[in-house]
Design a protein that fits this description.
With about 425 residues, the protein is of the alpha/beta class. Helices cover about 40% and strands about 10% of the residues. It has a four-stranded parallel sheet, with helices on both faces. A four-stranded parallel sheet has the order 6-5-7-8, with helices on both faces. This is Sirohydrochlorin cobaltochelatase.
């Protein structure tokens, strides 16, 4: 009989992070819900950027509690850049620095039945209907699902798949998908196109875990379209938050690791990352997750990044500053909320000679180049709609020139998300 001491287990939930403090609080509610499911196992959480605790701090807490085996779960709906590259990079670096520590990285939440049921429940609730006793159909209503929108085609496709599944389950008269991120169609222009179908009631349902600037931006777009179309009833569903079924979904991902279901030969998020790392397709790089100062409540760059950025700008002559500031700002905006409060000079002209190599220095994430950045229904439609004119560094000079009127009129406005 073996007398080998069993390694102490711990659970780590890895989130994205937000400048919105309400989003931090709500993420903590998920961790609290999971702790109730595992009262005998330490459960911690942390964020990639903007928020405290960061992932590094959460891992430190587990190690300080004597944990030797960590089950890490990405708090992400779909597997895009953050779940595929950024979180694995942080976990790999941390594990290498702590001999004897074993970290197993699980799967994104994905389209589990529990996630779909939670989403449908939020939609029924918005219509004042009982999710346990739903109507046979909702043929008189159109559903518009708002996905995150990334440069990852597969993640965008999962949002569209979700829309179809929910539509089949709930029986809407029509359903379609719009996106708040770098893909198309964007929320505002997407809604305007869908109005032509003639539905008098439209449910807009954001498939997001928590609140944040993106949610508030989406609400701003919907309100704007609703005000211009008073004859149509717009219903805004609540985001997922800590719905019981969401906690169930997180628990299932933990159980997959505990029961060894990830070791079936199928490539996991971590094994995929390590394969691509060995092939030189991705890099291990420093992260906000490792450098954010928890005492810094400016909700902007970390102290490390601010110093790095300041030194970089000071080394440039005046003619280079405007271009560098734009690139540096965009390098920290990635595939998430781009409606930052800006700590840079907004008096830039619009002769940006943007480079499209998207080098992120030593500590940025890589968001990937999106080939449809110039799509007429994509991110360019957000210029002039409450979003800063320097939305993304991927905009070409041609696009900036075509949208010049919107850009000139938008730089001094306050984004919906900041109101």
């Amino acid at each position: 009989m073996s007398n080998k001491k069993q390694a102490k287990k711990g659970i780590m939930i890895c989130g994205h992070g937000s400048r919105d403090k309400d989003a931090e609080r709500e993420f903590g509610l998920v961790a609290k819900g999971l702790k109730e499911r595992y009262p005998d196992i330490p459960v911690e959480y942390g964020f990639l950027e903007f928020s405290a605790p960061n992932i590094h701090m959460g891992l430190d807490s587990l190690v300080n509690q004597g944990v030797e085996e960590i089950y890490a779960i990405p708090g992400m709906l779909f597997a895009a850049t953050h779940a595929k590259n950024d979180i694995p990079s942080v976990l790999t670096t941390y594990e290498e620095k702590h001999p004897g520590l074993n970290i197993t990285y699980g799967r994104e939440l994905g389209l589990q039945d529990d996630m779909i049921e939670a989403f449908q429940a939020r939609i029924y609730e918005s219509l004042c209907l009982d999710p346990e006793n739903p109507p046979e159909n909702l043929y008189d209503t159109m559903l518009v699902v708002v996905g995150r929108g990334t440069s990852d085609t597969s993640a965008n496709a999962e949002a569209a798949k979700l829309t179809r599944i929910v539509n089949e389950n709930m029986g809407f008269g029509w359903a379609d998908t719009v996106y708040s991120g770098v893909t198309y169609p964007s929320v505002g222009v997407g809604l305007e196109k869908l109005l032509k179908l003639g539905f008098k009631r439209i449910v807009v349902a954001p498939y997001f875990l928590f609140t944040g600037r993106l949610i508030k931006r989406i609400q701003g777009y919907v309100n704007k379209v609703a005000e211009a179309n008073p004859e149509i009833a717009f219903v805004q569903a609540h985001y997922l938050s800590d719905h019981t079924k969401v906690i169930d979904a997180f628990q299932h991902r933990v159980e997959e690791i505990m029961q060894g279901e990830l070791q079936t030969g199928e490539e996991t998020l971590m094994s995929s990352f390590k394969r691509r790392l060995a092939a030189g397709e991705v890099d291990i790089h420093h992260h906000h997750a490792e450098f954010v100062d928890p005492q810094d409540d400016t909700q902007g760059l970390s102290e490390f990044d601010t110093k790095h950025f300041t030194n970089l700008v000071q080394s440039l002559d005046h003619s280079e500053k405007k271009h560098s500031v734009l690139l540096k700002h965009h390098d920290h905006s990635h595939d998430h909320d781009h409606s930052h409060s800006h700590a840079h000079d907004h008096s830039h002209s619009h002769d940006h000679s943007h480079g499209h190599s998207h080098s992120h220095g030593d500590h940025g994430h890589s968001h990937g180049v999106y080939k449809h950045i110039g799509h007429p229904m994509g991110p360019r439609t957000m210029i002039g709609e409450g979003i800063c004119c320097c939305f993304m560094s991927q905009f070409t000079d041609e696009i900036l020139e075509e949208e010049k009127d919107k850009i000139d009129g938008d730089c001094t406005k306050t984004a919906f998300a900041h109101r």
